[in-house]
Amino acid sequence: MKVLVTGGAGYMGTELINLLVANDSVEQVIIYDNLSRLNYNLFLGLKLQKHAKLTFVKGELLDSRMLRKVLKGVDVVYHLAAKVTTPFAHADSHAYEQVNHWGTAELVYAVEESNVKKFIYASSSGVYGSSETAVDEQSVTDPKSFYAISKLRGEEHVRRLMDKMDTWILRCGNVYGYSKSMRFDSVINKFVWEANFNKLVTIQGDGKQSRSFIHIDLISKALNNLLTAELPRGTYNLVERTIKIFDIVDELKQLIPELEFIFINQHLKLSELKVKENTLVNKTLGINNPKLLKEELQEFLARFSF
């Protein structure tokens, strides 16, 4: 099978590519990315025998001609490409609208004219906005940031494909964990970096807000397994644990006793979002995490050079 991964050089893309090239059912993997993050780590360290499966195309989501060209012969599309810039998800609405909304629209238009059989869209649990009670797939969406609004609008275009091919919209929790293409603006990654190198963690608000997370290894495994898993087409949440922000710092402090922390705008109670785990989806896609958060953080810290 021939697979196209938009945003293949990104955080999730890099880890997914590693699994796809090792997947015997995949004959060719096309990485479609504009390298806007100047992230070239994907191209380092792959074993020579796996290079034959990979093709890299530098392109934009808004380039409809290039999209139609690269989709020829493709069986499966993973749409991971997006503008994601925490904590500036409330700024530059035009950029989010162009890339995440209209870029997704252009890709869907091109896919509708192709012979693609499966389409997987990585959306965000941010489309629910905020909620003090756990939300599920039936909960009303109420995005608060320009990023989340653009991802929800992207979903509306992707949903058109569900009557035409196997299509899945995955509302992913906050992704964390080591990758050579990791993002350091996501909360756990940022905390681990600060704890390791500065011995000082900065906490926004009072730290009591909860967020739902999923480890990078688990989400890439789930995406890879979706190639063959028996999961009905539809919209699903993809999270594996919900944690209070301050609890992450507590775990890090156990690992680094000298760790200090400071609050920024401690008087503010920031919004929180709890997403209910979909146990059926997690089981179907092989999301099984026996590790405690403390174990994961310890392994994470061990991956730094010093």
UniProtKB/TrEMBL annotation:
Gene3D superfamilies: NAD(P)-binding Rossmann-like Domain, UDP-galactose 4-epimerase, domain 1. It comes from the Bacteria. Coiled coil: none annotated. CDD domains: SDR_e (cd08946). Residues 3-237 form the NAD-dependent epimerase/dehydratase domain. InterPro entries: Epimerase_deHydtase, NAD(P)-bd_dom_sf. Belongs to the NAD(P)-dependent epimerase/dehydratase family. This is ADP-glyceromanno-heptose 6-epimerase. It comes from Chryseolinea serpens.
